[in-house]
Amino acid sequence: MNPSARPPWILLLPALAGLAFLVLPLAGLLIRAPWPTLGTRLGEGPVLEALRLSLLTATLATGLCVLLGVPLAWVLARVPFPGVRLVRALVTVPLVLPPVVGGVALLLVLGRRGLAGRWLDEAFGITLPFTTAGVVLAETFVAMPFLVISVEGALRAADPRYEEAAATLGASRWTIFRRVTLPLVAPGIAAGAVLCWARALGEFGATITFAGNFPGRTQTMPLAVYLALETDPQAAIVLSLVLLAVSVLVLAALRDRWVSAP
To answer: What residue intervals traverse the membrane (predicted)?
Structure first.
């Protein structure tokens, strides 16, 4: 090794300490996991119900994010208008906003006495808080920025000449978007959807604030982990392992896009 390339100890020691700080809790989770009874515990009623509900709501939230987020990303990337930077900042606010605050905001808007929730309740009898639909909305709120950022980046990186060529051939804007733009940014949509799904699966703060913690209806895996820590720590470890496995799989699936290696 070139002597000039050797890292100084003053940097190497804190780097190793930082690595240990991040890795040791995960190692502790793996070491203390009830491996002999893991399959049995995954099949238990409360654990299985929380897992089923989490997979269902995360998938529905991801679909809603794609439905709303792809057009939003296209507008931010392709349509110049006054205040676009402000709109982009507002779209990314849930990334840094404490999830509990997001849950409170959702209650103020969609609660039974909220700005829109009161109208939904009086006109259609629709109540969203403390329901499975409320879980989906809470997860969508915190996860959509991941998809918008990913798709907007893909749109900005896409070569506009393909769209211009389609326009010169007489294709309508909708045809260009459907037949040219979407295939060009499909990898970005896929990456954003995977991140969206993983974020929705691990959502806790906005969910418990807006939807509550009712087994079989709103109790997702993170909420079940929180509750199980007081009554059944082994079940909490099992659910935590599932969430850890999902996180690792997401990073592995997106390593070429988000993780660079020398």
So the answer is: 56-77, 89-110, 130-151, 180-200, 235-254
40-73 tens-digit pLDDT:
877 777 788 888 999 999 999 999 999 999 999 9
Q: In degrees rounded to 5, what are phi and psi of residue 157?
A: -85, -15
Mean pLDDT on 181-188: 91
Domain tally, the chain: 1
Q: Is residue 33 part of a domain?
A: no
Residue 127 is classified by DSSP as: -
Q: What is the DSSP string of the chain?
A: --GGGSPPHHHHHHHHHHHHHHHHHHHHHHHSS-GGGHHHHHTSHHHHHHHHHHHHHHHHHHHHHHHHHHHHHHHHHH---TTHHHHHHHHHHHHHS-HHHHHHHHHHHHSTTSTTHHHHHHHH----TTSHHHHHHHHHHHHHHHHHHHHHHHHHHS-THHHHHHHHTT--HHHHIIIIIHHHHHHHHHHHHHHHHHHHHT--HHHHHHT---TTTT--HHHHHHHHHHH-HHHHHHHHHHHHHHHHHHHHHTHHHH----
- Residue 88 has φ and ψ, to the nearest 5°, of -60, -40
Residue 202: which H helix or E strand, with range?
A: none
> What's 103's domain CATH number?
1.10.3720.10
Interval 126-161: pLDDT, tens:
999 999 999 999 999 999 999 999 999 999 988 888
In a domain, 23, yes or no: no
Residue 236: other Cβ atoms inside 10 A: 18
